[in-house]
Automatic annotation (TrEMBL):
NCBIfam families for this protein: resist_ArsH
Pfam families assigned: FMN_red (PF03358)
Protein source organism: Synechocystis salina LEGE 00031
Ranges where the NADPH-dependent FMN reductase-like domain occurs: 8-152
Primary gene name: arsH
The protein's name: Arsenical resistance protein ArsH
Entry-linked Gene3D superfamilies: 3.40.50.360
Amino acid sequence: MTNFDHPPRILFLYGSLRERSYSRLLAEEAARIITAMGAETKFFDPRELPLRGQVTDSHAKVQELLELSQWSEGQVWSSPEMHGNITGILKNQLDWIPLEVGSIRPTQGRTLAVMQVSGGSQSFNAVNTMRILGRWMRMFTIPNQSSVAKAYQEFHEDGTMKDSSYRDRVVDVMEELYKFTLLLRDKVDYLTDRHSERKARTPDSQ
């Protein structure tokens, strides 16, 4: 039986530091939508996060990111497409989240939705890269995704998204993420229980 006792906890990461960042505006619109569905949402602000390797993981911003990742049941990654791929801003955040910290896996078993914005025609390069990263980080990436072309045309001055087929897709993505997160909630331990990891914990077993 699925556990609906508390709302899904969703973390949002975005890939731009611009004052009017469309990847952040898209993430904020998505957060409003899934919050209205009943989810609890938090954002990580990537400003002041050092480059991976510059400092140790005891740095305050790194610890904040790791704690938010551990808090989350699902995540949403939103990136501009830059030179046909995700931005270094988003990749740096993901680089700081390892597959394992002691006995804790910061992303394994969490659901993931991917979204991108483009300044020109619609593209799927960034979301495809994020799917690869999600798989590598052992997350359950939902089938649906959002790609917003000519993003500068798709938002009101106050940052909210204009009514369009692009926004309809964002609603679809958030609804799907909400459902997958709830449905997988009580099954994550079973689905992520792997032979190789059990063997590593008990090296004498065959």
